[in-house]
Structures are given as C-alpha cells and as structure tokens.
Design brief:
Helix content is 11%, strand content 41%. It is mostly beta strands. The protein is globular.
C-alpha cells in the first residue's frame, strides 16, 4: 500500500504555532480526484459561507471538513462530490468515541471506505 503525503488545515481551537504553519484551506489532487480540505465546511445543502463557490470553481470530487465532531459521509448531488466529515480523532471535545475514516483513491474512484471507532480510554 502506498501512502500519500499528509495534508492538514488549521482548526478553530488550534494555537498560534499551528496557525502559522497550516492554511485554512487545502486544494490538491490525488491521482484524478480533486480534494478540498477545510475545518469548518458544513454539509451538503448547508455549506459554510463561500464553500459552495470553492467547490464549484474547482470542480471538487472530494470535500473533507470537520468541526462538528460528528462522523458523516454523504454524496452531494448538487456538486457531484463525496463529502466526508471524519468526526473526531482527538481526546478533547464532547464526543464519546474517536473516529477515523480510511479510503482508497484509485484513479478517479474513491473506494474501500472504512470507519474506525476508538474508545476515548484507549
């Protein structure tokens, strides 16, 4: 299995060092999948201000955002993309379980999506 470079964006409670290192938004391509990554992005039909315009302008295939700490994977028929909110992997916050999402990008396909739950005490 080949792992791609790690991409990250700053979150709303990140401190000064991370705010200096990380952007608010990352736009990149993995194989033939255009990815837009941001922290506060909303959901299909209820995107945060400006997100819809970015998705449309960049013809994004995969939109990843977080903030709510609630894992959701949804198809957005308006922009014809997959939206993933991986939930919360950290120990801080109101969530009861940590969640991760793993998937494979193969050319223009997003497949083999897996959800991993990790109890907070592990």
């Amino acid at each position: 299995m080949q792992l791609k470079p790690v991409r990250a964006v700053v979150g709303n409670i990140d401190g000064y060092p991370l705010r200096q290192m990380l952007p608010l938004v990352q736009l990149f391509e993995v194989e033939k999948v255009k990815v837009l990554l941001t922290h506060i992005g909303g959901y299909p039909g209820k995107y945060a201000a400006g997100i819809g315009a970015q998705l449309q302008a960049n013809q994004t295939t995969l939109f990843i955002s977080g903030h709510s700490h609630i894992l959701k994977v949804m198809y957005d028929p308006t922009y014809k993309l997959l939206h993933i909110n991986p939930g919360a992997a950290g120990r801080q916050g109101f969530h009861k379980v940590r969640t991760l999402v793993r998937f494979v990008i193969d050319q223009d396909k997003i497949k083999e999506l897996e959800i991993k739950e990790i109890p907070l005490n592990e």
